Amino acid sequence: MPLKPSQILQQLQAKREDFSNFDEETSRLLEMYRSALTKAMKLDDGTIRQKLQTIGDCGATPTGALTDKSWILPFGMTWSTREESLNWVRQKLLGISTFAVDGSQIYPGKELSIPVALVQIGWYENLHVPGGEYIKDIATDVLTPNDLRTEKGEMADRKVNLRRFQMETERIITYFEEHRGSDTALAFFDGSLVVSFAEVFEEETRMGYVNAMNRLLEASEHFQVPVVGYIDTSAARDLTTMVRHLYRLPEAPTIHDAQLLQWVEKGRMQWGDCLELFQCQRSGILAKYSAKARPIVFTYLKTNREALPARLEFPKWVLDKGRMPQVLDWVRSEVVIGSGYPYVIETADQVAVVSNSDRQMFFKILQDWADGESLSIRLARKVVSKMRRR
276 and 299 in contact (C-beta within 8 Å)? Predict the structure, then answer.
C-alpha cells in the first residue's frame, strides 16, 4: 500500500520538539566552530602546526603549499558561455589521458541453491586527442561458495564488496603501469583514499581494504602517475577536528568540513576555487597504512555554485613533485565536461553497471554450465519463470 501522508504528518508534528532541539544544538555548535575557523584562517601555517605538534591525531595540518596569504586559492577565471569553458578544457586536456574505474555486483541470494556472486568492474580512459580516441572495457569475477565462506557471523556481502574494491584498485594499478613515468596521465578514484568505513569490519576484511589501498598509493608513487580520490558529497571531519583541538571546543559529530566551509566561505569561494592543501592526520585506520602510503593531502574544490564543495585527496608525492596546480586544472576540466561532476567517473559508472538483463543472463549461463557439468545448482522457480518469459 502507498504511504499515508496524514499519518506521517501526524507523527512529525508529535515529534517536532526533537527536531527543534536538534536544530538549535547544531546551530549553536556550528556558530561556535564557524567563529573558531574564522580565527584559524588568520593564523599562519607555522603557528597552527606548532599548536598541534603534540597532538598525534589532530585531524589535519596545513601544508602551506598553495598560498601563504589565505586558505582560499582563487581559480580566477570566468566564462560567458559553455563553449568558452570547453575551449579552456581543450587547452588543458589535449593529449592528457584521464582514467576511472567503477564496479557493480550480483550478491549471493535466494535465487540460487548455493552461494554464488558476480563482480564486474568497468573502466573508461579518455586520451583527449583530436580524433576523440577512448577505451572502454569490463572485467568480471565469479565468487564461489569457498570465496564467500564467512566466519564469526560476517555477512557474505562484505566479501563481495571487498573483492570489487580489490579489482577496482588493481585495475588502476595496471593503468599506472601502462603510463609509468608519464606526466600526461591522471587516474580518478571514486571515493576516499582513507578507508575509514572499513574500521567497523572484522580484522581480516579491514586489512583487505587497507592492503588494497596501500598497494594503490605505493604504486602511484612508484610509477609516478597521480591519482585523485574524488568525493562529491563528503562527511569528512578532519578540518573540524583540527579546529576543535586548536580552540578546545566541545565534540560536534554532526558538523563536517564541507558544511563548515560553506558557512564560513559563503560568497567567497567561487567556481573553481579550492582550499589550501592539508595533510590528513585522522585517527583510526590511517595508523594501519604503510609509511609510504600514509601521507595523504586533501583540499576542497568548488565545483558547483550552490552545492557544498567536493573533497579531493592525493598521495603527498604529487604535492612534493610540484604537480598539484596542473592536476587541479585537469580535475576542473573533467568537472566542466561533466557539468558539475567528473565526466570520466560518470562514464566508468555507466560502463560498469550490471543491468537486470545482465543478471538474468548470468543466472542462465550458470545454470546451463552447471547442468553440463552435472553439478547440483538449482535456480529458484521465480527466476526460471522470468527467463522463460523473456
Answer: yes
Give me the helices (H) in the chain, please: 5-14, 16-40, 45-52, 82-93, 156-178, 203-223, 238-247, 257-265, 316-320, 324-337, 343-352, 356-372, 381-389
Taking each helix axis from N to C end, the angle separating 238-247 and 257-265, rounded to the nearest 10 degrees, works out to 70
Among 302, 276, 264, 277, which residue's Cα sits nearest to residue 39?
264
- C-alpha cell recorded at residue 53: 605538534
**Structure-block grid coordinates of residue 275:** 582550499
Mark whether 96 and 228 lie in a shared domain. yes
CA-closest candidate to residue 335, choices 228, 201, 175:
228
Percentage of residues in the chain having pLDDT higher than 70: 88
* pLDDT tens sequence across 26-82: 778 888 888 898 888 888 888 888 899 888 899 999 997 766 567 888 898 889 999
Asked if residue 297 lies in contact with residue 313, where contact means CB atoms within 8 angstroms, the answer is yes
- pLDDT at 385 (0 to 100): 46
CB 172 within 8 A of CB 189: yes
Model confidence band, residue 24 (pLDDT cutoffs 50, 70, 90): low
pLDDT in the model for residue 376? 66
- Tens of pLDDT, residues 260-306: 887 665 557 889 999 999 999 999 999 999 999 999 999 999 998 77
SS3 state of residue 62: strand
Judgement on whether residues 59 and 98 belong to the same structural domain of the protein: yes
How many structural domains are present in the chain? Answer: 2
Residues 95 and 201 in one domain: yes
Query: What is the DSSP secondary-structure string of 315-335?
Result: EHHHHHTT-HHHHHHHHHHHH
Which residues make beta-bridge pairs with 125? 99, 135
Of 326, 241, 315, 274, give the one whose Cα is nearest residue 67: 274
User: How is residue 288 written as a grid cell?
Assistant: 594501519
Domain boundaries, position 372: 357-389
Residue 155 placed within a domain? yes
Judge residue 263's burial from the number of C-beta atoms within 10 Å of its C-beta, 0-12 exposed, 13-18 middle, 19 or more buried.
middle
252: its cell numbers: 560536534
**How far apart are alpha carbons 39 and 62 in whole angstroms?**
15
157 versus 104: the higher-pLDDT residue is 104
Please give the Cα distance from 344 to 350 (Å, whole number). 10
